[in-house]
Every structure is written in C-alpha cells, then in structure tokens.
Amino acid sequence: MRKAFSSALALTLALATGSALAAQDMPEAGLPSKADVLAALDAHPTVEAANARTDAARADARALSRGPHEFIVTGGYASRTVNDGTGVANGRFDEFEAQVTRPIRLPGKATLDRRIGAQGVTYAQNMAEDARHQTALLLAQSWWDWLGAASEATVDRQAVENYRAVLASVKRRAALRDASALEEDQANAALGTAQAQAERSSGRETVARARLFAQFPGFPLPAAAPDVPAPHIPDGGLAPMRQRILGRSHELAAAEALVGRADAQAARARKERTGDPSFGFRLFSEKGGMEKGGGVLFSMPFGGGYRSALADKAGAEASAAQADLQAVRRNIAETADADLADAQTSYSAWQQARGALDAQVAALQKTRRGQQLGEIGLSDVLLAERMVHEAFRTEATARTDAMRALTKIRIDSHELWIGDDDDKEPAKPAEDQPPAN
C-alpha cells in the first residue's frame, strides 16, 4: 500500500513540476515542432488542392484581362461558270474572298473584367490560407486526441500497479491470517476492473495514433506520446486573441472578395446588355481577277430579353453574396466568442480538477493510515483508491481539454503555425490596372 501511495504521490509531484515549467513561459510545450507542422500542412491534399485552385484563379484573371475576343479570319473560294443565256459557256472563273474581324470590348468592360479576375485571385488566396488553417486545426485536434488518450492510458496503467500492490499486501496479511478471503476477493476484483479499463484506454491511444498517422502519413511521430503539459495562460490574457480572430480571418476576407467579385460581375452583366461591336476588313477577287476590291466590316448585336435576364441574375447573386458575408461575419464572431469561453472554462476546470486531485490524494493517505491502525477496513481503502484513480483521470482529461482549447484559440488567432511569425494578414485585391481593350 505504501508503494501504491508513493506512485500516486509521484504523479502528483510530476503534475506540480509541469505547472512550474509552464509558468516559465513555455507556450510550445507538448506541441510538435513548427517545421514538422508546416511540412505536414504543405503536404496535405486539401492544402495542395487549394493552392492549385489559386493557380487556376490567376490564370482566369489573366484570361479576363485579355478579354474573350480574338481575331477571326475567314476565307472562301468559288469556281464560277458564266454563260450568255443560250447555254453556251463564256468561261470559268476562280473567285476568292478573305476577311478579318475582331470584336472590341466597349469602354468600362475591360476594367470590370480585371476587377473580377483580381477579386477571384483574392478569394482563392484566402481560401488557400483558410484550408491551411482548417488543416492545422485538424492536426491539433488529432494530436491532442492522441496525447490525451495516452495520458489516460498512463494513469490507468499506474492504477493497475497500485491495485497490484494492494492485492500483494492483502495476500501477505491473509498468509498471516490478518485478512479474510473476502478481502482478497475484493482486491482481486478491483485489480481486474482496473486492468480492463487500462486495456480500453490503451486501445483508444492506439486508435488515436492511427488516425493521426492516416491524416498526416509523413508526420514524424515519436515512439511514445509526449506528456501533456500543464496549461498556461499567456501574458496579456486571452481576450486579445479574440480580437485577432476577428481581424485575421481568411474566411471573412474570402467572403468579402466574393462580394467584390459578385458586384463587379453584376456591373459587367448590366454593361453586357449592349453587345460588343465587331470591326474588320474584307478583300475579294471575282471573275478571275477582273473584279477586285476591299471594304470595312461592322456588326453590332442587339440585346434583348436574354441579356436582361442575365443581368438580373447577376444582380440577385450579388445580393446573395452580401447576405453570405453577413452570415460569415456572425460565424467568425461566434468562433471567437466560443474559443475564448472554451479556453477560459477549460483552464478553470483543469484548476478545479488539480485541487480535487490533491484533496483525494490527501484523503487516500489518511485512509491508509486508518487501515494501518485497524480503524478502517479494506473496502474503504479500495474506495479511496478508486476515487484517487478517477481524480487522476479527471485531471488528465481536463488538462488535455485545456491544452486543446488553448491551442485552438492560438491557431484561430494566427498566433500559432498560421502566420505567427510574419503577422500575415488576409490577402487583399490588387489595384486595377489602367484600362485596355
């Protein structure tokens, strides 16, 4: 029993040491290295796909800047036979015709096309950054799932050792006829229950590690999960991080870019009610070259109900984009508020769990002393052991939850892994270039 109590006390001292280390400004304790994380993010298929969409948006912007119109070259050849009306052929003549035409964008359309392209690039860039953000959250979630499961498994394995020590003590007392067979059965049952729970928690640790490796197969995982450190509130508190979440959201910047693009597309659709004219040149040779000439070509489409309907559609989509932007703003505010509340309450819950653990260990110590004096029976000792075990598990879970919440608010505020070195701001659209048709 002394061995069991010493093990519990050792765990308590380890937790206290973790608290002291956390107080020494070690915000990265328990987290993988930034270099490994960035490599894992870059290699994730979601991030690669988002980067490819950014390249596609840049190509689309170049196409919009150049415009949809190209030179059109047409030509024709004919062989004509001419007669005088009596059926007698007067000759056969080769005739040729060639023309070159090109539509021209009306004033203002090129500027809007470039604006549409620029907003599309801005949207894609921000969505690529948001993909990295979401992938970082996935990595952090999987990481703490693994470390949390491993922490609980460690506590459960230690509990098995504690119950084994209790059982060994009961067997020694039984050999001296100081303990009954019932007490030995009780100790055996407690050990069996602890072993079953240790097996389950070990299985959860294995599953959590497998899931982490499946999502990030190139991520260098240590052979054993690192210990979950004691959480630490950074200097300045958590409230400033909430404001950074609101100011650094790539999802919000992407929604704003969508609004800008939709507005430009609506304006472009209104201008498209008037079609682009086409200009060109025509050369021809008839009657074997006896008649030659050239001319200027001009064509102009007239807009009707179809173009008007497209303009109305683009205007409605711009209104929808504005509504979507308001929804995104609410979602970001919800995320910021939830992150702050979760971090604060999780940290407070861990502090309460630490205090309860210390009290349970002290109660276990008094219970064992009472048993040594013959004032307390084995049932009370086993109950105290179980309560200490549960207190250790509760503290381990609360510690993991607090670290998970603190990691999330740091990622969402771009203080960790995402733009934390260069204070990276969401992408903004480039200024419009001088108009060119």
UniProtKB/TrEMBL annotation:
The lineage of its organism: Bacteria, Pseudomonadati, Pseudomonadota, Alphaproteobacteria, Sphingomonadales. InterPro entries: MdtP/NodT-like. Gene3D superfamilies: Outer membrane efflux proteins (OEP). The keyword Repeat does not apply. This is Outer membrane efflux protein. One of its GO terms (molecular function) is efflux transmembrane transporter activity. It comes from the Bacteria. Residues 416-437 are annotated as: Disordered. Residues 1-22 form the signal peptide. Keywords: Signal. The keyword Signal applies.
